[in-house]
Amino acid sequence: MSVEPLQLFWYFGIFIILISICGAYCILATFNLIRALIGFEILVKAATLLIILAGYLTGNQALAQALVITLIVIEVVMMVVSGGIVLWLYRYNQTIDTRKLSNLKG
Predict the structure, then answer these.
(1) In this predicted model, what pLDDT tens digit does every residue of 28-77 receive, in sequence order?
(2) Residues 9 and 15: beta-carbon distance below 8 Å
(3) DSSP letters of 13-48?
(4) 100 neighbors 84 (Cβ within 8 angstroms)
(5) Which pLDDT value is given to residue 92?
(6) What is the pTM of this model?
(7) Within a 10 A sphere around the Cβ of 36, how many other Cβ atoms?
(8) Which residues lie across from 97 on neighbouring strands?
């Protein structure tokens, strides 16, 4: 049974929208920095799926794969750096709650 490209677009499109909503909610509704990083990771995965879907539908799978690999490398670097910053904040302030960190000066 083959699936039409338009039908495939709707299935994956709705799934990508739901993942994006989950990631945005995870970033916006929490005061925990680790949860915000997880929300960012979910948003990047939704963007990755969107690039793969666009490459499949347009017939440019090679370009989509190259973009996804680049996106994954950039994502890993950003997560390592931001994870290090969160770890330093926890060691320095004994909290990763953004409400308590907003009072810091300097």
Answers:
(1) 999 999 999 999 999 999 999 999 999 998 999 999 999 999 999 999 99
(2) no
(3) HHHHHHHHHHHHHHHHT--BHHHHHHHHHHHHHHHH
(4) no
(5) 87
(6) 0.85
(7) 19
(8) 32
Better-predicted residue by pLDDT, 70 or 89 = 70
CA–chain centroid gap for 102, Å, is 24
Instruction: Please answer whether residues 66 and 1 qualify as being in contact, where contact means their C-beta atoms are separated by less than 8 angstroms.
Output: no
Residue 30, by phi and psi: left (phi above 0), alpha (psi -120 to 50) or beta? beta
DSSP secondary structure letter of residue 3 = -
**Would you say how long the chain is, in residues?**
106
The total of other beta-carbon atoms located within 10 Å of residue 29's CB is: 10
Beta carbons of 57 and 34 less than 8 angstroms apart: no
Nearest residue to 17 (alpha-carbon basis) of 25, 28, 5:
25
Of 90, 15, 17, 9, nearest to 56 (Cα)? 9
